[in-house]
């Protein structure tokens, strides 16, 4: 972002120091373009900073125009800050229309001023230069959007390549892992039928078998990343899936002195990968529990919002540094010393396969909030 700002800053300085002078009273430059781009693509802080620099140059180069320019750009800044919040949700076509209308309003106000003051000759020149500015603005917008799309596609390609590497690695070791797991499970089943084993130990054996089965399920999920099983989609009681996930992780939470509260809407129906989405919740909750010290608190909420269900998993743990948030879900990236990062990688892929989205907000020392949106079905 700093490079982007300095490019816009250089553009403002260049266009203001080399304006198009078409009379002794009037000159024209393209300062509005980098100002618009700064607000829309950079946000309020870069936009206001660039506007302040522009006003400083105006005061230095043309003091008589300082206060009119100040008034105009105060209004323009307020409008651009408002547009920034809605702009990025629009299609490219609508983005061009929005900014074109905004600039045309500015050009129209300038034209009305010239006509009222009797500057007919300057009006025709201003009209031509406004057209040039509009074409330039549209070209810059399309160029930026094209570059953003290329960057997104490049990141997606890198992600796909990493997932392919994981799939190949998982496939190469899955067979070797399954064999000893099957052997251990078989011996445990034999031991569980022995009459010489106390009931307490028998319960431990039962838990061990369940965990081996869970490990087998996880291995299958890793392998399914590159080969999604569409036939596994089923309509389920999603409220029960979340409650079951909380129940599974509750023992681990108790061991770590973490209290889990919940607010789950009833009778949420959804078409999903039942076991996989349960693993998503367990992965996220487990990470949250491990991020907290003693007496930690975790809150899980699920509410239906129109055609989506919103799941929030919030903890008051150590939080995640801002520079690491963008890397969440990346293979082999983990905030834990002995973590692999594959748990969240699998979780992100499962959410993506269900046409959902996952968003993470975190502050160091305050905690982390995972917000998941998934489409529902009636």
Question: What key phrases describe this protein's structure?
Answer:
single chain, 378 residues, alpha+beta, Arp2/3 complex 21 kDa subunit ARPC3, Heat Shock Protein 90, 3 domains, five-stranded mixed sheet, two-stranded antiparallel sheet, 11 helices, 9 strands, 64% helix, 14% strand, two-component regulatory system, transmembrane helix
What is the structure about, briefly put?
With 378 residues, this protein is an alpha+beta fold.
What's the CATH topology label of the largest domain? Answer: Arp2/3 complex 21 kDa subunit ARPC3
Radius of gyration: 29 Å
Number of distinct helices = 11
Secondary-structure element pattern, one letter each = HEEHHHHHHEHEEHEEHHEE
What composes the largest sheet? 5 strands, mixed
**What is the second-level CATH architecture of the largest domain?**
Orthogonal Bundle
What is the overall silhouette?
Answer: elongated
Strand content range: 5-15%
Count the strands?
A: 9
CATH hierarchy, class of the largest domain: Mainly Alpha
Domain module count: 3
Percent helix range: 55-70%
Poorly predicted regions:
none
> How confident overall, as mean pLDDT?
81
Tell me the strand order in the biggest sheet.
4-6-7-9-8
Structural class: alpha+beta
Gap between N and C termini? 44 Å
